[in-house]
Amino acid sequence: MPTLQQKNMETWQVVRDRVLLYVRAMDLPPFEGLEIALESLKQANTYSIEEAMNSLAYTIEKRGLNKGVLDAQGEHIASIPSMNRGVMVSKNFDRTPWLTALKIFIHRWTRDLFGPSRTR
Amino acid sequence: MNVQENREIKWTRSASWRRIILLSLIIVPTITASRYMAGVLPYKGETPLEIGLVVVFAILFAWISIGFWTAMLGFLVLLKQKKSFSLTSDIKNTPLDIKDPEAKTAILVPIYNEDVHRVMAGVRTTLQTLRNTGQDQNFHIFILSDTTDPDVWVHEETAWYELCREEEAFGSVFYRHRKSNVKRKSGNVADFCRRWGKSYRYMIVFDADSIMSGVTMVRMVQIMEQRPDIGILQTPPAAVNRQSLISRVQQFANRAYGPIFAAGLHFWVLGDAQYWGHNAIIRVEPFMEHCQLPRLPGKGPLSGDILSHDFVEAALMRRAGYGVWLAYDMEGSYEETPPTLLDELKRDRRWCQGNLQHLRLIFTRGLFPVHRALFINGVMSYGSAFLWLLFLVLSSIEAITEVIIEPQYFPSAELALFPEWPVWYPHWAITLLGSTVLILFLPKVLTILYITFVEKKAHQFGGFIRLCFSVLIEIVLSTLLAPIRMIFHSRFVVMTLAGRATGWGTQTRDDRGTTWGDAFQYHIGQTLLAALWGTLLYEFNPSFFWWMSPILGALFFSVPISALTSRVSIGKALKRNGILLTPEEKNLPLELKILDEKMEAPLSYTPFPLPREQGFVRAVVDPTVLALHTSLILRHRIASPSIRRRREDIQEKALLYGPESLTQKEKMELLRDPEQLKELHQRVWRIPEWERAAQWGLE
Asked: Which of A37, B147, B332, B541 would bridge B216 by S-S if both were Cys, CB 3.0 to 4.6 A apart?
């Protein structure tokens, strides 16, 4: 059976690793990341993961690191350009009767073969 | 009359004469061959069965004649080296420069659950080759995602971000994920047009595996600038990059015979060409005005969204008065083929339904005759398989009935002095077979001659001997594969017409082979069919059995044929020996070299050790991925209380049982709701039990 001290120690380790893992995942410059972790753990001073993570979230917010991915102008990054809306409406798809289609076909082909003057 | 009208009259007149020549070349031999066919039959084509046989034969003969005469005409065009109506000759000597800064072009890469790494390598290649031309300021690349897999979606977002960061491409490479993939690829492109189309004069449409050189793209824009009468300019993409036997055969066929067929096609279609859905440039304004596709009304397999949209868009563009041209001699345009027979058939299943839909469009008002003919041609791509099968079945019935039913020596009721003997002339049959073989294989022989003696490029195919050997292998393999494809295509036609709709499967784009298990599962029916068919024929009419043996043999061995042709090892072994070699394999073009480099480049470092393929988990757990994903979600609507409650339930489920417990739909729902996602993120990071936390990668 682990003693209470041992159990506390293990929890501390889990809390520490969770906070460090989060900071690592944030991909911050080395000193900044470690400073945030240290500050959060000091403030939380607890064996509870929830409290440690709350403390970390507070520190991150305080430092303005929770604003999402920003572009050079400090705006939220956009993967698309600004819109320039247009419309696309489908045209008629009505079918021509067989005979009419054939007549048009012969007329058009004659015109293509012999030029507009012959068919006029 | 202005220059454009004059030009149009000139090409339409030439095209009309050329089509008359082509039609005569098809119709006259078809009539002759059909008469021969009737003569070969025991009752000279006078019984209903024989009439059916002759009719089906005539249609099939005409169908293969189109390909034959297209190749013959292409051969003559290339032989004469007179590039009449060639679009590339006008810009050949002009500098690589787009003069008008307003001539902006969007390169569209529509994707649907694709291999993200390959797609991004392709985009990087396109970007780099464009930058090499110095004209990249005139182009923007749009990755248009219709992805429905949550893991792939997040992977696409992070890959786009990495690409933009590493290539400094923010503002020139864009990514858009569509919430609902209405009308599939055509809807995806139409959605782009509605949102950003007005900002661009042209768009170059890619497939997920398309590659085009920067020079080719700039040249395409130059042609479009010079010719405002052109609506769509299609390039003939060369098949590249595959290693399996079947794909190397297709690559070889595409590269060896392709130029001749493309030149022949150009000869008779001119400005009435087809659009193949990718590797083409489109004038955006008329496309937006005239090429929106409606849903086909009614119920059943031939209604609903138009699946093979490209042919229809080309027909509509032409109806609007713009030319659709094939730049048959343009290089630097590539695509990849399916790696296995089963993958090819999976794609064909989809295409079959799309092409059969064209039956409903043949008489659409205002379309040009060539486009109506091309619709029929599309239908015949699969219908011909069904007709061939019908022909074989009718022939077998004829052969069996000839044996089991006693001939009528006095068929007329009146008294006759002499009996009518059923006579069979084997030399007629051999002549007919010979002419069919000529139609099928002469273009291949001419290809060898053209490559060796006119182009003098046999060395690019491994030398004259290897070229001949490659053609031989291609002929053997295509002969073996044809009956297998025939059975599948016939099934697709029947299934489609019977209303069994097709799904929209993702195409496999890697060289994964077919397992023996899969081959057995999909082809065992054909083996049994061939065994039964062969036994019947051998039992009743052994001589006819031997006529049918090449077809029945291929069907009988379809399991090993399918499995072995998918093998990369065989493809590579042939490549090592210079067989089925293509010019691109011999001398890798720059753009394909760049693609290879990009494919093999090490992935950028990520501090959080979660596999990139686990997109959903990354979006929930990794704070940088979450931040990116939530930043990219557009116009998030506040969910109604009932939806919110449902999403909260999904969140609880995820927390209790881990990400694996969620369905794709549930994951998508959470990914579309930034608030829920952020909340889940916070709660996951606060999970105290390490086993549960480990499910999310927090170890």
From this structure: B332
Residue-wise pLDDT tens digits, B139-173: 999 999 999 999 999 999 999 999 999 999 999 99
pLDDT tens per residue, range B597-616? 999 998 888 888 789 899 99
Range of the domain at B675: 615-694
The closest of B184, B484, B492 to B350, measured between CA atoms, is B492
Nearest CB to A86 within list B198, B365, B628: B198
Q: How far is A45 from chain B (nearest CA, A)?
A: 16
CA gyration radius, chain B: 28
- Write out chain B residues lying below 8 Å of A18, CB-based: 685, 693, 698
Choose the final residue of a domain: B330, B360, B377. B377
State pTM to two decimals: 0.90
Q: Give me the pLDDT at residue A120, please.
A: 40
Residue B291, in any domain of the structure: yes
Q: Is residue B145 part of a domain?
A: yes
Residue B524 covered by a domain? no
For chain A, what is the largest distance between any 2 Cα atoms, rounded to a whole number of angstroms?
108
Domain final residue pick, B334, B357, B377: B377
B518 domain residue, yes or no: no
Alpha-carbon distance of A97 to A102, in angstroms, equals 9
CB pairs under 8 A between A and B: 135
Domain boundaries, chain A: 4-62, 96-120
Q: Tens of pLDDT along B497-546?
A: 888 765 545 555 566 789 999 999 999 999 999 999 999 999 998 988 99
Longest alpha-carbon distance in chain B: 105
Confidence of residue A72 (pLDDT cuts 50, 70, 90): confident
pLDDT band at A1 (very low <50, low <70, confident <90, very high): low
Q: What is the DSSP string of B506-558?
A: PPP-S-PPPPHHHHHHHHHHHHHHHHHHHHHHHHH-HHHHHHHHHHHHHHHTH
A90 and chain B in contact, CB less than 8 A: yes
